[in-house]
Write a structure and sequence with these properties.
Elements (H helix, E strand, L loop, with lengths): L6 E4 L10 H7 L4 E5 L3 E10 L7 H12 L5 E7 L2 H5 L26 H16 L4 E7 L6 E4 L4 H8 L4 E4 L17 E8 L3 H16 L14 E4 L2 E5 L5 E3 L9 E3 L10 E2 L4 E5 L7 E4 L7 H4 E4 L2 E4 L3 E4 L5 H6 L3 E5 L5
Helix pairs in contact: 2-6
């Protein structure tokens, strides 16, 4: 990824937008801002997607919207970030180039490199456009249901969440993500649509985008027939840098940690106390960290080792579990929320 300059595509006509998502991606040569004039030009909203190049649901929804030729309710801007990573072969499989920082970890700076300059450009757009609402649309690294992520549990953030999903994760973790720049006058919510290969993810992204651009008021929760599930205080579980990881039915003799091939089925289901969730080559938890938003190490509270089996000490709900070893190593194994409800 070498180009941090922004291309502005104003008022694209439906017949000028490529007919398929792959060709649409080919039309994008660099980070791109697409603008559409709404019925009400006194307000605007911002839809951000593809900050990770392997998370296509937001791009797919945006392409479908542009091809519809419909006018949004208010002025709408669409920011597409990691275009070059997404175009790397095989298409839509590269989260970010290994020699560059993760774009969605750059919003606190520094801004000297390419992903930093792209992040800085988006921050400048927030200040210039003054959107009334911002969505950052992603896919989870592994298969699983949709959820939103926010640092605030107020009416505005709940309303934006409810456009897409019935689950909200509240976190104070500071990783340099766009969502962390939320303000009272500019609420920002991250939407995790589910896994990139999950058919449901495309529907979540499309239905939510349509509500975001069509509704007159997206900052007041609309009526619906479900109760929002709010999960709090996620703990980030990571591996130490020199730890190797594998996926298989039994411990891999060449890997320090082995997880089941179907480990993603743990996403959002309650993991009962005492469940075997992996195997370790060496006994002990030295290769795993479990860190809360305050930086406290809590691995001994959550996990234990029985022989060489990795077991959870308490009931947990986990999410963003991935079977992609590169992401598990470079980002995290998963996030966990303590669930001490009666078994």
């Amino acid at each position: 990824m070498n180009d941090a300059s922004l291309f502005h595509w104003s008022e694209p006509q439906a017949d000028h937008v490529a007919n398929c998502v792959d060709s649409f991606l080919e039309q994008l040569k660099q980070p791109t801002l697409i603008s559409q004039r709404g019925k009400d030009s006194s307000r605007c909203r911002l839809f951000v997607t593809l900050l990770h190049g392997n998370e296509p649901s937001g791009l797919m929804a945006l392409h479908r919207w542009l091809k519809s030729g419909e006018q949004p309710e208010v002025d709408c801007y669409f920011f597409i970030g990691a275009v070059e990573a997404a175009k790397a072969e095989p298409r839509l499989s590269t989260r970010h180039f290994s020699h560059l920082r993760d774009l969605n970890r750059c919003f606190y700076g520094p801004f000297h490199d390419v992903p930093g300059r792209i992040a800085q450009t988006l921050i400048e757009l927030l200040d210039e456009l003054k959107p009334e609402a911002v969505l950052d649309v992603h896919n989870t690294s592994g298969s699983g249901p949709s959820f939103a992520v926010s640092s605030r549990n107020d009416e505005q953030h709940i309303a934006l969440t409810s456009l897409f999903t019935e689950r909200l994760l509240l976190t104070d973790n500071k990783l340099g993500a766009l969502m962390e720049l939320t303000r009272d006058d500019r609420p920002i919510v991250t939407i995790e649509c589910g896994g990139a290969i999950d058919p449901e993810s495309a529907r979540v992204a499309w239905d939510g985008l349509v509500r975001f651009v069509r509704y007159d008021n997206v900052l007041k929760e609309p009526p619906h027939d479900w109760n929002l599930e709010v999960l709090t205080d996620p703990i980030r579980i990571t591996l130490t840098p020199d730890t190797s990881i594998a996926y298989g039915d039994h411990g891999n003799v060449d890997a320090d940690v082995t997880f089941p091939v179907d480990v993603e089925h743990f996403n959002f289901g309650r993991i009962e106390k005492g469940t075997v969730i992996g195997e370790l080559k060496q006994a002990g938890l030295q290769c795993i960290h479990a860190t809360d938003a305050q930086g406290n190490e809590r691995v001994d509270e959550l996990l234990e080792v029985r022989g060489h089996e990795l077991v959870n000490r308490i009931g947990l709900k986990c999410f963003m579990i991935t079977s992609n070893p590169d992401i598990a190593k470079s980002d995290c194994l998963c996030y966990a929320v303590i669930d001490d409800s009666p078994e």
